[in-house]
Specification:
alpha+beta, SMI1/KNR4-like, four-stranded antiparallel sheet, two-stranded antiparallel ribbon, 7 helices, about 40% helix
């Protein structure tokens, strides 16, 4: 990804940038939320920190908005369990007691890669730590791939500013434990 080119295009789309995170700031965020930024997301956030147009301001890592965004995937799945008769097959039989069902779901989501909010309800898993993780759109159990990697996601999200109206997902998207099954 050519970081300056991506920044320029996103600025044309109205995204506001601050100076990138320092290595120390990135480490503090990771410690606070118990995840590790994948390499390409870390590189992007350390190059220039997007803070406008729904992007999450990682510099303000004490913000309740970040905690809320990180809990959104579990809360959305739980909403569909309670209201739409959803239960992931991978969890086996659904416990009869609501508290047990929630604990079973919470424990499974806690084992899965953490979904790191990018902008709005678009998320990138923290594992593997290498570049190239897909970006998911997560709205309750409506979980879909929105890009095979960070660059493709940004090109899809801001496609008109990249000079195309095409929304594409490359072949061979990396499988992500738990989340890919829900997106399937």
């Amino acid at each position: 990804m050519i970081l300056q080119q991506v920044r320029t295009v996103l600025e044309q789309a109205g995204v506001v940038f601050e100076p990138g995170l320092s290595a120390d700031e990135a480490r503090r965020v990771e410690e606070r939320f118990n995840f590790v930024f994948p390499d390409d997301l870390r590189e992007f956030l350390m190059f220039a920190l997007p803070t406008g147009k729904g992007f999450h301001n990682w510099r303000d890592y004490q913000s309740p908005e970040l905690s809320k965004a990180l809990s959104w995937p579990l809360e959305g799945i739980w909403f569909d369990v309670q209201n739409n008769a959803f239960w992931p097959e991978a969890l086996g039989a659904k416990p009869a007691a609501e508290s047990e069902a929630f604990e079973c779901l919470r424990a499974r989501v806690a084992q899965a890669p953490v979904l790191i909010p990018i902008v709005g309800h678009r998320y990138m898993p923290d594992r593997p730590r290498a570049s190239g993780n897909p970006v998911f759109s997560v709205y309750q159990t409506d979980i879909i791939y929105y890009g095979a990697n960070l660059e493709e996601y940004l090109r899809n999200e801001f496609n008109a500013y990249f000079g195309t109206n095409e929304h594409r997902i490359a072949q061979g998207v990396r499988e992500i434990e738990f989340w890919s099954a829900l997106a399937g």
